[in-house]
Each structure stands twice: as structure tokens, then as C-alpha cells.
Amino acid sequence: MSDGRIFREAWIAGVNKHYPGEPKPGYVTPWDETPEWEREAAAVYGQVRDFVRISEGHATRPTREQKGRFVAICWTAQVFKHFEDPKPGYVADWAGLPAWQQETDADIFERIEQPV
Predict the structure, then answer these.
(1) What pTM does this model have?
(2) First vs last Cα of the chain: how many Å apart?
(3) Residue 65, C-beta contacts closer than 8 angstroms, at least 6 positions apart
């Protein structure tokens, strides 16, 4: 399975777990139907994986919130890479993200750190 697909599946699992109510269809679109820019932005997987490897096993020590913040900032960088003028919600700072998204981002980090 590709890194991007793992990232996307971790996102969908987090949305299904933490989103209050019925998530927007775009939040749970399967990998094969995900827009190309979003597939490319799933490079966040590699950014987290590299962080975990470079820390030589110490990436387990940051708090869950710090892990989620790392995923969020990597995602923000990817959005800026793909859009000149992105929607504010796509690049919101951590404090501006809804709780479900913060939890999902932390889940993503923890999913990626497992096999590394």
C-alpha cells in the first residue's frame, strides 16, 4: 500500500471516529476518488515518517497534541504548495481547527509512527 493511501485511510478512520454526526462526503472519499492535489499532499505521511526516523525512536515522547500539531503544520505546508490562495479553513492554525480534526491529526501521527 502506498504511503499516501495509508495517510488517506488514517484520515478517513479518524473522521469516522471523531467527526460529530455525518461527515461531508469529501472527508471520506476513498483514495481512488481523491483529487490529484490531495493525493500529492498526502506526502505528509513521508514528512511524519522522516520525523519519526530522524528522532531515533524518541518521536513517541511528544504529547498527543504535539503530534497532531505536527501533522497539521505539515498539511498546511502541502496546501500552500498546491494553492496560491487556499481557503482559510485549509490552512487554519491549530487553535482554529475543530476538536474532531485535532484528534484525527493526532491519530494520523500515531498510525504512521507504528511501523517506523
Answers:
(1) 0.94
(2) 15
(3) 102, 106
